[in-house]
Amino acid sequence: MARRPSPGRCKSRLAAAIGASAAARVQQRLLWHTQAEAERWMQQRGGTWALALGEQQGSGGLGQRLQRLMGRELRHGGAQIVVVGSDLPGLSADDLQQAFAALEHQPLVVGPAADGGYWLIGLTAAAFAHQRGRLFSGIPWGGDQVLACTLSRAAELALAPVLLRQQHDLDRLGDLEPWCGEA
Prior knowledge:
Structural class: alpha+beta
Number of strands: 4
Helix content: 40-55%
Low-confidence stretches: none
Mean pLDDT: 87
Strand content: 5-15%
CATH architecture of the domain at 58-182: Alpha-Beta Complex
Radius of gyration: 16 Å
Shape: globular
CATH superfamily of the domain at 58-182: Spore Coat Polysaccharide Biosynthesis Protein SpsA, Chain A
Strand order of the largest sheet: 1-3-2-4
CATH topology of the domain at 58-182: Spore Coat Polysaccharide Biosynthesis Protein SpsA, Chain A
Distance between the termini: 24 Å
CATH class of the domain at 58-182: Alpha Beta
């Protein structure tokens, strides 16, 4: 899931520090990275992937958009779905492979983010049908309790998660430093 890399339409917290145009360039680079890793994963494993930009996600809060996106993709007959954020300089094809491998044994996979959210969430088709949107409702999106609330809700729904490695997403000026150091 991603926002279109247009000035004023993406990376608002980062844009406050570096300007809207520079933030849009960062978003574009992150999108290229995410696409490259998804394509690399697809070449290794096979399968399909899709990029859902903001306007393709529809209206509503993040929980509604996740529910709608997952439902739409699973209606095409998939057995599993993984949604990954687009602001992860550390994302690799191996992360995607681990997520899908986890779903072979558990109904839910989550990639924790260092800021208290998550960078990836995946469900089996059966788990998606079972949760009926409840996994994504009532979550304080954008705060530091997103992961904790999601895991609590998963426990209520008897969806045992596999947790992937923690990653840092890129939201603020300080988040750029490790990424720029690697470039």
